[in-house]
Write a structure and sequence with these properties.
The complex is a heterodimer. Chain A is an alpha+beta fold. Chain A has a 7-stranded mixed sheet. Mean pLDDT of chain A is about 90; it is low at about 575-625, about 850-860 and about 870-880. Chain B has 5 helices and 5 strands; from the N terminus they run ββαβββαααα. Chain B is about 35% helix and about 15% strand. In chain B, helix 2 (about 90-95) crosses helix 5 (about 140-155). Chain B is of the alpha+beta class. The chains are: A alpha+beta, B alpha+beta.
Chain lengths: ~900, ~160
């Protein structure tokens, strides 16, 4: 077993105290002298041409400093180079209710809000498209002129021979699955503060500094430079604490650009913070997805072929859409051994807020369909659902039929462990009626092997500086968004250098100070920024080792870095080493038991005399130079403190810095077909989950009692964080499975609030038992891989399969709300579906019809154009929410 | 709107402020007193990120008029850590992963503080019921229960001195 001193120990995140005391600053907590507040005017129409904007009255309102409109920043941008279809503020057309039209900058929020009402806009309302399958038939009034039939992008992939595969199958299942739209709803609303400095040489506005709640400071810097026509070197992006992202902050959100444009026009710093309602409009969540899936298996459970047609309701702009639709197809592979795959994916534009990347990007909805269908097939051939999954494992290492390289593969162990812990074999099928167990698996990338902006640059670079005080400063562009990225960086640097965590300071995500890192998305940080940190620390360690070896009169290979000191192998180690040999928990990783009896096992940096603190005194030595120190140290020794070694190394080398960078190896970058760039990753994480649910057959209500979730994260660098990520993913998956849904009516979001959206509270949340599986990836830092997203995708089908086990109905549409469950139960009994809402506005979303129907939209909503598809009589066209 | 002079007692200190009668307590705390620990996560008391104690009772400051709190004792998250050290619950939330992104954490601190003041040894069901006034999108709440349990144990054993 590897003997690490910091890796694998449960530790509090290095920024935990800032968070629990409220001292930490998020973007909206910042203010600078002279700062103004910006408020954005949003479109009330889903699709309309802007004929005239008159800002005169608003500009004259007392307290208003500037009004910004589209022509103040006409350059288009978008997160993907192929999708530059957005403008900070609409130029000629609005494309969804909530699209950005103008921004008022004023001395206070209330004045800005009042002035918004004084902007006069004349719109010409256009027919709008709300359902992707309708939208694909569009001939005129396209959402973007360059996209015929409103199709953003379509891909058609064939791997192997699917027809032959289906011919070999003994059982084939075919069905349509629908996963409705969900959003991140991170607790922190988006916020941006932008400020220009005056250039001392020209006297004009020069450098721009932007503080923003972003997962991708580097991409933000890039897009700001594009829209503002400023060099990237003149634009500094700083990411303060970020209150959750889940993908919603992984691209440039309009307010980030608008704030900078407004600061330029107002000639003063401007802060814009979205209201919660605006966050829902900004969206970029998981698209409503229609999946027509066909799977064939042999009677012994081998999958012979899979055919999927996927239509995603992408909203009004490209966003990450091209990537999302490719992930949906590419990640059909690399979980199981599937020899033949046919995939047809359509990313369709509609007049709703753009969808983008959300936790489990692209894979979640298709995984729900696939794992549900696999369960169905297991039932058809009379095989245990766990067994059918075990019958289709990959033989790793391998390259899948669609070109994905798989090395470490912990799926077999994940299935084994969840089956064992949940008592699957003894309990499956034997629970009382109305209660059931379901199993499902999933996987995810540890970072994309190909970056969004194609180049040969490393995906992560990390610099380390050590000065004579022995403090280790790590500079990383990786973005801490609550997942523990800074702590992971500190742990790796401390482990390599044999120092305590308190010695390491992490400076992160400030484009002026930190080298480029492409951001926190696609679960790439631990793998890529972790590897870069490992390399940078190893480089510095070499310099220290060279000096220490000289001092100690031994070879570099004989040195051991540990416990803030450097020892010679075989020499007498000081007592310091014993104190850090923390006692280990029953599982060998020094974890606390779930019920908190082993508090003393935890690595603690704050207080307590018996715990390791920064060692080594350097009194006076910096002032008096190291000559005395040198004399004291004459003669070979068996150990040196870290400080002594650092001083020696600086005297010897002049400076003590190191750089490490990471780029995925060429072998991991995928095949050659069109769209092959999305899906490949240097390593994949694996999950298997068992969910236990009960279903109330009277009300259709589903309760999740417990989820056993095994996740192969390569190596758990910090088990507390890994478990937190697994539980958080399962919980978010449960939200999508049972309650969360964006409900639309004619392009209007009906539930733009956290309670109405039904993010689960503590009383609705199940017990989750996280099970860490460590497959030790050959290329991951200390063997680590992804752990923050992969688990989510398995939860939804695990719950769906458990519902089937409980009451024998298979749900094809998520979330599994009481009305959907009840409808399925009544259909099973050949009973007529209950219509609780007869006589109520038939175009209103089902969920709201139940509560009395048409809400405030009985004549009060925006006036719809005569050609608006929602005005047509057939109810099937009336919006996607039904 | 004409401003009024009021006196608020925040974290044991009296502060005199000129505020509009319509000003919300959360805005006054954040913008006038620079106590930015209390967060705005919604605007309609859905999420609980703005929770503060008013005379010991957990209240959502985003829908509370500042003027209505005159003369009452307001405690924000900044008033929880005492004597320059983390309170047991703050330490435990860090150790057990009760905080990830941390945005909802100040609100949870206040809710837990108010819960434990009323009921020093709550059952898990009581903890769940109390926490349901606050939303978190990161943790799935599980690690918070462990943190709370461990903080109660630490308090009882007097492990956290001061």
């Amino acid at each position: 077993m590897n003997d690490f001193s910091i890796i694998g120990k449960p530790i509090a995140m290095i920024d935990a105290a800032e968070k629990t005391t409220g001292a930490g600053k998020y973007t909206d907590d910042l203010s600078v002298p002279g700062m103004l507040i910006g408020k954005i005017l949003h479109s009330p129409y889903p699709h309309a041409r802007i004929k005239r904007i008159d800002t005169n009255r608003a500009e004259k309102y007392d307290g208003v400093v500037a009004v910004v409109v589209g022509k103040d920043a006409p350059n288009p941008y978008g997160i993907l180079p192929v999708g530059h279809d957005e403008h900070a503020l609409a130029l000629d057309k609005v494309r969804y209710v909530g699209d950005n039209v103008a921004c008022v900058v004023a001395v206070s929020e209330s004045i800005a809000e009042k002035a918004l009402e004084l902007i006069d806009i004349e719109y010409e309302v256009l027919p709008a498209y709300f359902d992707p399958e309708e939208s694909m038939k569009a001939q005129s009034d396209l959402i973007h002129d360059s996209k015929p039939q409103n199709v953003e992008k379509d891909y058609h992939h064939v791997f192997g021979d699917p027809d032959k595969g289906f011919a070999e199958a003994d059982q084939i299942a075919e069905a349509r699955f629908i996963a409705n739209e969900v959003t991140h709803a991170a607790m922190e609303p988006h916020s941006t503060l932008a400020s220009f400095e005056l250039d001392p040489h020209t006297g004009k506005p020069g450098r721009l500094t932007v503080w923003s709640s972003t997962q991708v400071p580097y991409y933000l810097q890039h897009k700001l430079s594009l829209v503002l026509e400023m060099p990237m070197s003149q634009t500094r992006v700083i990411k303060p604490l970020v209150g959750g992202g889940f993908g919603g902050k992984s691209e440039v959100i309009p307010l980030e650009i608008i704030a900078a444009v407004a600061a330029r026009k107002a000639k003063a710093p401007v802060k814009i913070t979205y209201t919660r309602e605006e966050v829902f409009w900004a969206h970029r969540g998981r698209p409503r997805t229609i999946i027509d899936l066909k799977t064939g298996v042999t009677s012994d459970g081998r999958i012979t072929a899979v055919k999927a047609r996927v239509v995603q309701d992408g909203g009004a702009y490209c966003s990450y859409g091209v990537v999302t639709i490719l992930y949906s197809g590419a990640l059909l592979g690399a979980l199981y051994d599937i020899p033949n795959i046919q995939y047809d994916g359509y990313r369709v534009l509609t007049n709703k807020p753009a969808c983008g990347a959300m936790r489990g990007h692209g894979t979640v909805n298709v995984r729900f369909a696939f794992e549900s269908q696999l369960d169905e097939l297991a039932a058809k051939i009379g095989m245990d659902p766990a067994k059918i999954r075990q019958s289709n494992l990959l033989q790793t290492p391998c390259i899948t039929v669609n070109g994905l390289r798989v090395q470490s593969y912990g799926l077999p162990e994940c299935i084994e462990k969840t089956v064992e812990r949940s008592g699957w074999k003894a309990r499956k099928g034997k629970l009382p009626k109305g209660r059931g167990l379901g199993i499902a698996c999933s996987h995810y990338v540890s970072g994309a092997a190909n970056s969004i902006i194609r180049s040969d640059m490393p995906h992560s670079t990390v610099n380390i500086k050590i000065d004579r005080d022995g403090g280790v400063v790590v500079y990383t562009g990786a973005s801490e968004i609550g997942q523990g990225s800074d702590t992971m960086t500190a742990q790796i640097a401390a482990e390599v250098l044999g120092g305590s965590l308190a010695r390491v300071r992490v400076i992160a995500a400030d484009t002026d100070l930190t080298p480029i890192d492409i951001g926190s998305y696609s679960s790439r940080v631990t793998f890529m920024a972790g590897n870069a940190t490992l390399r940078a620390a190893t480089e510095v360690k070499k310099l220290i080792a060279a000096a220490a070896a000289r001092k100690m009169g031994c070879e570099i290979e004989e040195l051991i870095f540990r416990d803030d000191a450097i020892f010679r192998k075989g020499g007498t180690e000081s007592g310091a080493s014993e104190s850090a040999q923390t006692s280990r928990g029953p599982d060998g990783r020094g974890r606390p038991s779930p019920h908190g009896s082993t508090e003393s096992d935890r690595l603690t940096q704050s207080h307590g005399a018996e715990l390791p603190t920064v060692s080594g005194h350097v009194e006076g030595q910096i002032l008096r130079g190291s000559l005395q120190q040198k004399r004291k140290e004459e003669g070979p020794k068996n150990s040196m403190t870290f400080e002594e070694a650092v001083v020696a190394a600086i005297d010897f080398h002049g400076a003590l810095t190191g750089t490490g960078s990471y780029a995925p190896p060429p072998e991991a970058r995928g095949g050659k077909h069109k769209g092959a760039g999305v899906g490949p990753s240097p390593a994949y994480s694996y999950s298997a989950q068992v969910a236990e649910v009960s279903v109330d057959e009277e009300t259709g209500e589903v309760t999740v009692h417990k989820v056993w979730a095994a996740h192969d994260c390569g190596r758990a660098l910090n088990p507390v964080s890994v478990e937190g990520q697994i539980i958080g993913s399962v919980w978010m998956g449960m939200g999508q499975a049972l309650t969360e849904e964006m409900v639309w009516k004619d392009g209007m979001l009906m539930n733009a609030g956290l309670l109405e959206y039904r993010s689960p509270s503590s009383v609705e949340s199940p017990a989750v038992e996280p099970i860490i599986v460590e497959s030790i990836d050959p290329e991951g830092p200390f063997g680590a891989k992804e752990c923050s997203e992969g688990s989510l995708a398995a939860t939804i089908p695990a719950i769906a399969n458990a519902i089937f086990d409980a009451v024998g109905v298979r749900l094809h549409e998520s979330p599994f709300t009481p009305e959907r469950v009840l409808a399925a139960l009544r259909a099973k009994k050949n009973a007529k579906a209950l219509n609780l809402t007869e006589g109520v506005d038939p175009t209103s979303p089902i969920r709201f019809r139940e509560h009395g129907g048409s809400l405030c939209f009985n004549g009060k909503g925006p006036e719809r154009h005569a050609l608006d598809p929602s005005r047509r009589e057939t109810p099937s066209v009336a919006g996607s929410a039904d | 709107m004409k401003k009024e002079l009021i006196e608020l007692r925040v974290n044991g200190r009296a502060r005199e402020l000129a505020i509009e009668p319509s000003a919300l307590l959360l805005d006054i705390l954040r913008n006038e007193l620079q106590l930015t620990g209390s967060k705005r996560g919604c605007d309609d008391s859905s999420c609980g990120a703005c929770t503060v104690l008013v005379n010991g009772v957990a209240m959502m400051s985003c829908t509370l008029l500042a003027a209505s709190c005159e003369g009452q004792e307001i405690t924000t998250v900044e008033g929880v850590s005492e004597h320059g050290a983390l309170a047991a619950i703050q330490k435990a939330y860090g150790d057990w992963g009760g905080a990830q992104c941390g945005y909802c954490t100040p609100g949870f601190m206040m809710t837990v503080k108010s819960l434990l003041a009323e009921n020093p040894n709550p059952s898990e069901a009581e903890v769940r019921a109390a926490l349901s006034s606050n939303l978190c999108r990161c943790t799935g709440y599980s690690q918070m229960y462990e943190a709370i349990r461990s903080a109660i144990a630490a308090e009882q054993q007097g492990l956290v001195a001061k």
